[in-house]
Recover the amino acids of this structure.
């Protein structure tokens, strides 16, 4: 993490590698500090830079800015249309440009708007720079040092900085957690499998003073986690379940976070095709989010008790695999007819959600890369949410809006519950029709939460198919920031 300084200076004396200058289109550029507005105006007059949203112009040795080697103008578009998410993303694009150039000492002129809170703008802009500051080189042969910023100086040109500075630790913890999720989800399944993932959880738990318990195969059998064991039985890598506990004094609420941690999803005997398997090392993103969020919550001393459950398995075809047609006696006592071994996430979660429901917590939130149908419905920038507690669902949607990690609700349509009826067992693990797959998966999970206040996030937004704004190609790292927004509240 770079050092971050937020001051009310105007950036005139900044002497680092590059100063990022967000600019509104139209006449609003006059609101830039004088030192910079001359340059911006000249560029706008002489080039076709219109300051459209996300438009970038890097200028070398700009006139009027004393020490900075570069000034990067980035468009915010029309001021009337601006939002905090747009600011975060536009600044993030400029910061990605700087990062790729290897520039390390970065200045940022926080934009000033009439319509938005100054503090919130400062926070969003700073966050855009920090979120962009990510490169993962662990698997490059020469092991190059990842490009990283060293110092980030934010200039507010006279605006009060107290609130933003006070909020900075939460931003930094959220960004670190986002990057942790990106790293874990990027790590190939040959390296990150249940045992090594559990070890990683123990390591992070120790750093953040979280209580951590790892259930191995024997403990899972004793604990009745038969669905977890069934999904994992085709792999040479044995399953693990990790339980993390963060227990601050005087906590009035207790939340359980449950994460799907399928370290690789081949589909099992209901094998996926080759291209569908390419990104399935990321099928553990839910568990990574649980781990990273708890570390961040502990770091900022969130005032709520949090229990984290991670269900870690590998789903593989093998002579010992569970089969289509098998009936599982889940931990809850409900029996499940498995008709497709690729609908494995809901089986893993069924045991964990049942365990969570026994804890008597105020809320249960599970996070899972559960269905391809969520991507079909919402694309890869919006996550799906469903739940039994509308207030909880709405609070999480709001947190998604606040953090730019978008979440959209799908209905748990009662009529579709019939599609999960099995002639043989209490229910089956697929609906048997293609339509509404995200909803039927949600309905399946609901069977295991008892009467709890529960929400399920289907993580369609966990993998960016291309680089954009502050997001690199690959795992987006979404999750911890919206959860933290809620937990800290
Ligand atoms: N991990 C996948 C869901 C997934 C697929 C997430 C593609 C992101 C991208 C999950 O285990 C799965 O395979 N679900 C099946 C369910 C089906 C068999 C009912 C799916 O979505 O095809
Ligand atoms: Zn699957
Ligand atoms: Zn899966």
């Amino acid at each position: 993490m770079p050092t971050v300084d937020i001051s009310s200076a105007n950036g005139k004396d900044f002497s680092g590698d590059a100063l990022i200058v967000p600019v509104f289109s139209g006449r609003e550029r006059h609101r830039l500090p004088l030192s910079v507005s001359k340059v911006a105006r000249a560029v706008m007059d002489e080039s076709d830079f219109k300051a459209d949203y996300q438009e970038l112009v890097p200028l070398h040795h700009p006139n009027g800015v004393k020490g900075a080697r570069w000034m990067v103008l980035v468009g915010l578009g029309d001021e009337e249309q601006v939002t905090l998410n747009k600011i975060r993303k536009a600044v993030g694009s400029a910061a990605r440009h700087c990062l790729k150039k290897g520039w390390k000492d970065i200045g940022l002129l926080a934009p000033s708007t009439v319509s938005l809170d100054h503090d919130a703008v400062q926070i969003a802009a700073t966050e855009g720079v920090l979120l962009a500051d990510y490169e993962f080189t662990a698997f490059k042969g020469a092991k190059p040092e990842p490009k990283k910023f060293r110092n980030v100086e934010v200039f507010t040109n006279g605006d009060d900085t107290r609130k933003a500075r006070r909020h900075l630790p939460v931003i930094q913890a959220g960004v670190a957690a986002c990057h942790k999720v990106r790293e874990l989800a990027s790590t190939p399944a040959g390296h990150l499998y249940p045992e090594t993932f559990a070890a990683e959880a123990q390591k992070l738990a120790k750093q953040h003073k979280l209580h951590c318990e790892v259930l191995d195969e024997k403990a899972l059998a004793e604990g009745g986690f038969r669905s977890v064991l069934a999904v994992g039985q085709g792999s040479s890598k044995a399953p693990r379940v990790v339980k993390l506990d963060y227990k601050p004094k005087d906590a009035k609420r207790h939340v359980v976070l449950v994460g799907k941690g399928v370290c690789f999803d081949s589909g099992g005997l209901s094998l996926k095709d080759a291209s569908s398997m390419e990104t399935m090392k990321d099928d553990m993103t839910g568990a990574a989010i649980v781990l990273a969020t708890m570390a961040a919550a502990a770091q900022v001393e969130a005032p709520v008790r949090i229990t984290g459950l991670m269900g870690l398995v590998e789903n593989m075809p093998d002579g010992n695999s569970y089969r289509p047609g098998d009936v599982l006696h889940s931990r809850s006592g409900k029996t499940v007819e498995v008709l497709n071994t690729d609908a494995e996430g809901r089986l893993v979660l069924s045991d964990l959600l049942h365990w969570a429901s026994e804890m008597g917590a105020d809320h249960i939130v599970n996070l899972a890369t559960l269905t391809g149908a969520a991507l079909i419905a919402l694309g890869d920038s919006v996550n799906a949410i469903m739940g039994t507690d509308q207030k909880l669902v709405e609070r999480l949607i709001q947190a998604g809006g606040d953090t730019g990690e978008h979440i959209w609700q799908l209905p748990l349509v009662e009529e579709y519950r019939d599609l999960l009826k099995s002639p043989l067992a209490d229910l089956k693990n697929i609906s048997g029709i293609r339509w509404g797959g995200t909803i039927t998966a949600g309905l399946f999970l609901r069977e295991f939460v008892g009467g709890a206040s529960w929400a399920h996030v289907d993580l369609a937004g966990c993998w960016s198919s291309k680089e954009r704004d502050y997001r690199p190609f690959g795992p987006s790292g979404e999750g911890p920031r919206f959860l933290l927004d809620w937990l800290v509240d």
Remarks:
- The pocket of zinc ion (ligand 3) is lined by residues 262, 265, 283, 344-345, 369 (CB under 6 Å).
- Residues 164 and 294 are 23 Å apart (CA to CA).
- The domain at 3-158 is CATH 3.40.220.10 (Leucine Aminopeptidase, subunit E; domain 1).
